[in-house]
Amino acid sequence: MNGEIVARASAPPGAEAILVDLYREHRLALVRLAVLLVGDREGAEDVVQDVFSRLHGKRPEVLTLTYIRVCVLNASRSVLRRRGVAARAVPGRPDEPMDSAETTALLGESRQEMLAALGRLPRRQREVLILRYYLDLSYADIAQATRVRESTVRSTAFRALERLERELGGKA
């Protein structure tokens, strides 16, 4: 009987099992999403880890991939805000994180150029393009994730694509 009690105590409750499954199945894709938003892998991994640790203990019905994506989006925004505050507080500090030599070598020149242009877009435009073309979300899903109207998402995506085309000189 004691073995049965120990086994039940160590088995994760329903919400924890759901969270573990979501983590195992979607962690890498969520880290990739966060990398596109915050600009570096270490920061992105921290964002995703922090999101999952904050979700521990939540009700099982809120633990959906859509909800977790929104949490990663919001946590990435918070990281960028903190970086902006820190950059203003410390003079001479670069505004953007620098890629390592390995990262630069691994990424092709055109991809680097596209990522740099994407990084220069305003936050909302960058988020909409990443959610639309990286995660392949519909405009309605993006509107729900970003909490703006669908028409705003469409116009934001249109403006962002126009700006990218101008910056890249028609290469996009």
UniProtKB/TrEMBL annotation:
Residues 112-164 form the RNA polymerase sigma factor 70 region 4 type domain. PANTHER family: ECF RNA POLYMERASE SIGMA FACTOR SIGM, RNA POLYMERASE ECF-TYPE SIGMA FACTO. This is SigE family RNA polymerase sigma factor. Gene3D superfamilies: 1.10.1740.10, Winged helix-like DNA-binding domain superfamily/Winged helix DNA-binding domain. SUPFAM superfamilies: Sigma2 domain of RNA polymerase sigma factors, Sigma3 and sigma4 domains of RNA polymerase sigma factors. Residues 22-83 form the RNA polymerase sigma-70 region domain. Belongs to the sigma-70 factor family. ECF subfamily. It comes from Streptosporangium oxazolinicum. The keyword Iron-sulfur does not apply. Transmembrane segments: none annotated. It comes from the Bacteria. Keywords: DNA-binding, Sigma factor, Transcription, Transcription regulation.
